[in-house]
Design goal:
Number of strands: 5
Strand order of the largest sheet: 2-1-3
Distance between the termini: 65 Å
Strand content: 5-15%
Oligomer: single chain
Shape: rod-shaped
Length: 289
């Protein structure tokens, strides 16, 4: 609904819209700019920029939606504080229906100051009591809270990531330390080192058991290392055979749809994976982890 406001001193008339501002809803700060309302243009524009910068642009649209509910009221209130009054009873009733207070200027009782040249000066409220200042302070506070929460979240994430990386690096370092010492020992025969390298690949890539790796290293149809070289490799291989057994078990379950009992039998069979009963039991127990 539109209402007419008139400045009794300058006789200037302005037609204003009371209620929800669809133009602000769709266009944000532009309606204030086109009206020459520099104060609210600057406030909405500033909040728009600040909010958008911390929300990758998504917050900009939210600012316009929020201000659409009360921008017209703020604009009309500013005009009335600058001397404008309803031009007629219909306009007065429209403003009252929208919850906008009508201030009647009485030359005897008003706190406004009227000088001899009939210029009207509206006594300004303290800064902290002005609506625009309160809105701006709330937005800044919300943005600050969001920044702090985001910083804390990022810090926790970085800390957890660094901790995980350190633990992983420490584990890898510990696992490879003894193997590296064995490989770098000049007194170790080349055959032994080669057997250890092969054992590592069988453990990490094929998830084989200790007995399975030994047999593969010494088999005539396999690597054909000597028994001594194969035993050296087994003794110096830092392998988690429970983990290997679990990976094998999951592959049997996923690829071949085998039952837990059949998987356990396959894991321990001499014609199968040759894991120990304890390793096979661990794997079956943790199949659904």
């Amino acid at each position: 609904m539109n209402a007419n406001l008139k400045n009794p001193v300058t006789n200037q008339v302005k037609q204003v819209k009371a209620g929800f501002s669809w133009t602000t809803f769709f266009w944000g700060f532009f309606p204030a700019l086109f009206r020459g309302d520099w104060k609210w243009f600057a406030i909405i524009f500033l909040i728009d920029i600040i909010t958008g910068s911390f929300t990758y642009g998504f917050g900009s649209g939210i600012v316009g939606i929020i201000f659409a509910f009360f921008y017209n009221k703020l604009y009309i209130t500013d005009l009335m504080n600058n001397g404008f009054v309803p031009a007629d009873d219909a306009s007065k009733n429209i403003l009252l229906s929208k919850g906008i207070s009508i201030i009647h200027v009485d030359t005897n009782e008003s706190t406004d100051i009227i000088n001899e040249s009939t210029n009207v000066y509206v006594q300004n409220k303290p800064l902290y009591k002005r609506v625009w200042f309160v809105i701006l302070a709330i937005f800044i506070a919300l943005i600050a809270i969001g920044v702090i929460i985001g910083a804390v979240t990022d810090s926790d994430s970085d800390t957890n990531s660094n901790s995980s990386s350190q633990n992983a690096n420490s584990s890898i370092s510990n696992d490879s330390e003894s193997s590296s010492e064995s490989e770098n020992d000049s007194s170790v025969p080349t055959e032994y080192k080669s057997a250890l390298n092969k054992a590592k690949s069988y453990s990490s890539m094929m998830n084989m058991s200790k007995a399975g790796i030994y047999d593969q290293l010494t088999a005539d149809a396999g690597e054909q290392f000597s028994a001594e070289a194969a035993q050296y490799a087994i003794d110096n291989l830092n392998a988690d055979y429970n983990k290997n057994a679990l990976k094998k078990a999951k592959s049997y379950q996923d690829d071949m749809s085998m039952s837990p009992d059949a998987i356990q039998e396959q894991l321990t069979s001499d014609a199968g994976e040759k894991f120990t009963p304890e390793e096979a039991a661990y794997a079956v127990q943790h199949l659904n982890d």
